[in-house]
Amino acid sequence: MPTPSLTRYTRILQIVGDILKVRVPSKSGGSRDQARFGELALVEGRDGESSLARVIQLERDVVSLQVFSGTKGLSTGASVRFLGHPPRAIHSPNILGRIFGGSGHPIDKGPDLSHDPKVDIGGPSVNPMRRVLASRMIRTDVPMIDVFNCLVESQKIPIFSTSGEPYNPFLARIGIQADADIVVFGGLGLIYDDYFEFRRAFQEAGIAGRTVMFVNLASDPVVERLSVPDLALAVAERFAVEEGRRVLVLLTDMTAFADALKEIGIAQEHVPANRGYMGDLYSQLARRYEKACDFRGSGSVTILSVTTMPGNDVTHPIPDNTGYITEGQLYLRDGMLDPFGSLSRLKQHVIGKETREDHSQVMNAMIRLYAGAAEAEQKQAMAFDLSDFDKRSIRFGERFRRQFMDIGVSMPLEQALDLCWKTMAACFEPAELLIRQSLIDRYLPEPEAV
What is the 3-state composition of the chain as percent helix, strand, coil, each rounded to the nearest 5? Predict the structure, then answer.
């Protein structure tokens, strides 16, 4: 436990939910003694029990604190002492393979790390002058990402999903297969089964030694949920800047993060904006997502998150605000990545530059042909007469969903491109592909080889 200041403040004004308000007199010069926004404090009850808290609001001489372990058992007879610094995350090579809670302390019963170096969390995003234009691809071996919506270093991109979709197993598989140096995982409001599956998947795949996990369970205090993204991103930033590592940050579920903001805002009696969420929702999300960066002369931080859409409503405040911040999105529906709703705005920086020469034209042709398949399926459903081309388009659509859209499919990019050529050759004539003839001559397989 950090050493608190000697000054003890005992005038507890109010306890609502996990929010505690204490009066902190100002100095003669008008500056408040000890309390600063974002600073940690130690709340001590009459029974000697103590809990960490964080300053979340300053209003004249009244300081509002989030109590990490909750306010159950606290009374107005408690006292507060400030620690003089914001929350910190442990950062050293020793944290690789370790699991931490939402307070930043290890929860895996491993060796003590209290003497390891620490870094403040929640700092500002990187100076734009230190940023490099994204130009390197992160391979995931997921065809719908690698072929159609490349993940680029320093990108921030969410997976939009509905509840009940297998987004957590999918996210774990990306973390296992991605060609990143370090994976930093942040779990927000996870049920224990999901937490155990992430831990088991990383261990069985043999990547636990290059993974750091920050986990807030559904049974843990809600206020700790707000610290998980900051802890994960602070550690990722240090690995990228100081050690030149390519870091992939996985966050699930950012809807739980936004709901925690909403709950805290209501407890503070803030006036809500859209659907009960606070007016600063966009800023709160942007503060985290803008940590994604390719550092000049060093490593990079890439953020892949999950955002569940309540009621499958993309206009809900959480996905709506997220879409304005991030550089695209991946849509997960019915266990498949939807090619029409998914978009990577940075893919043009790597397609054809870091990838094979046929990548761009194959990607465009496959999406165009699948759009035609969707139209042919609508005609079939409405009992219209189908042409031979319509029938072949429907056959192509069935293969496309089975071979590429299913999130269980895994293959390297080059193998996926070859499979694209085989799929097109099996359903269409070369002239129907509208692809440059030199690429057709080089990559399209002979009919007897299909």
Answer: 35, 25, 40
**What is the count of structural domains for the chain?**
3
Tell me: pLDDT of 11 over 50.
yes
How would you class 59 by CB atoms within 10 Å of its CB: exposed for 0-12, middle for 13-18, buried for 19 or more? Answer: exposed
Quick one: tokens of 255? 């809807």
Q: What's the pLDDT score for residue 449?
A: 47
User: What are the pLDDT digits (tens) for 265-322?
Assistant: 887 778 888 888 988 999 999 999 999 999 988 999 999 999 999 888 899 999 999 9
pLDDT score at 164 = 87
DSSP class of residue 403 equals I
On whether both 191 and 305 belong to a single domain, the answer is: yes
pLDDT per residue over 191-208, tens digit each? 999 999 999 999 999 999
Q: Which amino acid is at 258?
A: A
CATH assignment of the domain containing 298: 3.40.50.12240
User: β-strand 118-120 against 88-90: which pairing, if any?
Assistant: antiparallel
Residues 120 and 213 in one domain: yes
- Is 3 a member of any domain? no
94 and 204 housed in the same domain: yes
Is there a domain that residue 435 lies in?
Answer: yes
Range of the domain at 418: 359-449
Q: What confidence score (pLDDT) does residue 6 get?
A: 67
Do 225 and 330 belong to one domain?
yes
Those residues with Cβ within 8 angstroms of residue 378's Cβ, 6 or more apart along the chain or in another chain: none
- Tokens matching residue 377: 């399926």
Q: Which residue, among 295, 296, 351, has the nearest Cα to 151 in the 3D structure?
A: 351
The residue assigned the tokens 């209003």 is 59
Indicate whether 358 pLDDT > 60.
yes
Quote the pTM value: 0.90
Please state, in angstroms and rounded to a whole number, the distance separating the CA atoms of residues 143 and 286. Answer: 29
Q: Which of 82, 102, 125 is the last residue of a domain?
A: 82
CATH number at residue 37: 2.40.10.170
Q: How far apart are CA 139 and CA 435, in angstroms?
A: 25
pLDDT of residue 2: 53
